[in-house]
Amino acid sequence: MDERYLPIEEHGIIGDLRTVALVGTNGTIDWYCPSRFDAPSLFASLLDADRGGFFRLAARASTRPKQLYMPDTNILLTRYLTRDSVGEVVDFMVPETSDVAAGRDLIVRQASSVRGSTSFELVCRPAFDYGRVAHEVRLVDGVGAAFTSSAGECVLRTSAPLRVTDDGKGVEATFVVEEGEQVDVVLEWRGVVRPLVIGETDDLFTRTSEYWQRWVSGSRYTGRWREMVQRSALTLKLLVYHPTGALVAAPTTSLPEQLGGARNWDYRYAWLRDAAFTVYGLMRLGFLDEAAAFMEWIQKRCEEASVERDVMIMYGVDGSEDLPETVLEHFEGYRGSRPVRIGNSAVGQRQLDVYGEVMDSVYLYNREVPISYDLWTTLGKRLDWLADHWQEPDEGVWEVRGPRQRFTYSALMTWVAYDRALRVARDRGLPAPTEKWRKIANKAHRFVQEDCWDPDLGAYAMHPGSGLLDASLLVMPLVKFAGPTDPRFLSTLDRIGEDLVADSLVSRYAINGHDGLDGDEGTFNLCSFWYVEALTRAGRLKEARLVFEKMLTYSNHLGLYAEEIGPSGEALGNFPQAFTHLALISAAVNLDAALDRHRGR
User: Fold this and answer.
1) According to the model, what pLDDT value does residue 196 have?
2) Which of 1, 161, 404, 425 is the most exposed place for a label (fewest CB within 10 A)?
């Protein structure tokens, strides 16, 4: 194991609703892109320990760090236990909201000693633009330090005695904090060179804490797994880009699905699918403001769609469609996992299922808040495009880079798209070509039942004639395509349980080269929680609860999940992943309800 790299699961995140920073249990911020999720990094030692840049603040002699979130917040506390003292570092960013702050790009770190005298070490070594741009370091009396480059500048404010590192690329300090005292450190992107004001960080802490506690108090979930559900909700909120309402799939890039492998992707963008599912998860808990912001965002994307390709499968957080995929050749990758990619060429793929996920989220939102006529009109145009293309092959939900196929999941979600559109039209009395939509929905339904059911496999296949299982088809009862006790679905559930499930961990499909990629991958956390929900709806409650409880043990110490679980239980893939946390919420809510009904009999 390369000890220069902290395991993915040994991190927490803090954020300001425009970007996040990953904070390791060793006190190192090793991933941070200022101002927005997909901006060039300032700290990226998670992807290259030598060139990436980092910001460390930790007790010097501690070998037993503990990390937790302050109650009902995204404020992170790391406790350092030494032989003679207990030191703590509180880390947070200030949310960009009118009642808290106006987007100042602040990382606040507060070092204190709660018992004895604690010696701390501070090292701030930025690496602008993924380490591609040189910078200058300047110590400023009474302020701290300023870092300047052609790619931007930042200011480090602290009373700690800074000195320039030997390589001239950063600053460092060692200092002792007495019991009951506190030393503040603030990093501000494009900040003014000025000293910290006494009480400044305490005021920011109070306002930030109150913001998160007030937000999460809006959750209406009171079930058995409140702590994990609330943490998932708080995590999903951190992945929303507040200025536009877009929601990123994950805030990192190129964390590998296999150590040393090439399945390394940039997830710092807004996938229509992920965002639609996430809105569903937040709506289940009562968070309608986020859903409303997403509806505005999706309306803009629909209005911008072209006749040739219609909506994209993903966008930049500002709605941009140009996301060229390039490789950072100078980065060695997390524990040598190359390539390190920025951008994502999957933006040019065709994934027909996204229409179903979007329409499902619109249908659910409309049940709470009536959608606008303008949104309805532009959605109708998208359904017109889908009517002409839904029978064509695509890359599917798993974004295969092999040959296009007529994936079962894409046809399933085509049925969802028109079924939900018909429901909205009926419920609201909105104008719609209902007969046309009904015919397409029926045709998609028959295609799944007649062409995609494989009697030899005893399951719905990934695509007709493939003979392959696909865990995405666990959603059939979730989207009400199949009854939860339908014989074909139960047979599919059993076959997936036999071939794709290892204890509670579910693979999305068998790795046999059909996806056009080399190497292997871990089990897929999203599918594991889909499996829980499928078992729940099938009435297999004891099994569902056991699988769910086991899956909870695969989170990290803070309740966070990456995309996948590796062969020894380690986190793999980008971190944290929105899809996983929304599926956890949905599984918990539905399992709770089923258990309550069962107990009430």
Assistant:
1) 95
2) 1
Rounded distance between C-alpha atoms, residue 171 and residue 162, angstroms: 6
Cα 375 to Cα 359, 366, 416, 470, 549: the distances in Å are 11, 11, 18, 33, 40
- How many whole angstroms separate alpha carbon 316 and alpha carbon 438? 34
Residue pair 122/57 in contact by the 8 Å Cβ criterion:
yes
Q: Which residues contact 488 (CB under 8 A, 6 or more apart)?
A: 449, 453, 460, 482
Cα 280-283-285 angle, rounded to 5 deg:
120
d(CA 158, CA 512): 54
Residue 62 pLDDT: 78
CA atoms within 13 A on the CB side of 177: 28
Which tens digit of pLDDT belongs to each residue from 533-577? 999 999 999 999 999 999 999 999 999 999 999 999 999 999 999
Contact of 131 with 44, CB cutoff 8 Å: yes
The answer to whether 525 and 563 have CB atoms below 8 angstroms apart is: yes
Residues 125 and 53: beta-carbon distance below 8 Å: yes
pLDDT tens, 186-229? 999 999 999 999 999 999 999 999 999 999 999 999 999 999 99
Residues 271, 249 contacting (CB under 8 angstroms): yes
Query: Given the structure tokens 């957080």, which residue do they identify?
Result: 317
Residue 1 confidence class, pLDDT cut points 50, 70, 90: low
Residue 155 near residue 81, CB atoms below 8 Å: no
Rounded to an integer, what distance in angstroms lies between the CA atom of residue 260 and that of residue 270? 27
More confident residue, 349 or 250: 250
Lowest model confidence (mean pLDDT) among 232-236, 266-270, 304-308: 304-308
The pLDDT value recorded for residue 280 is 81
Percentage of the residues of the chain whose pLDDT score is greater than 90: 84
Q: What single DSSP character describes residue 450?
A: I
Instruction: Report the phi/psi class of residue 369: left, alpha or beta, with left for phi > 0 and alpha for psi in -120 to 50.
Output: beta
Q: Name 444's Cβ contacts closer than 8 Å, sequence gap at least 6.
A: 390, 411, 412, 414, 415, 418
pLDDT, one tens digit per residue, over 407-423 is: 999 999 999 999 999 99
Task: Extract the tokens encoding 97.
Answer: 């909201």
Q: Please report the DSSP string for 72-127 in residue order.
A: TSS-EEEEEE-SS-EEEEEEEE---BTTTBS---EEEEEEEEEES-EEEEEEEE--
Cα atoms in the Cβ-side hemisphere of radius 13 Å centred on 201: 25
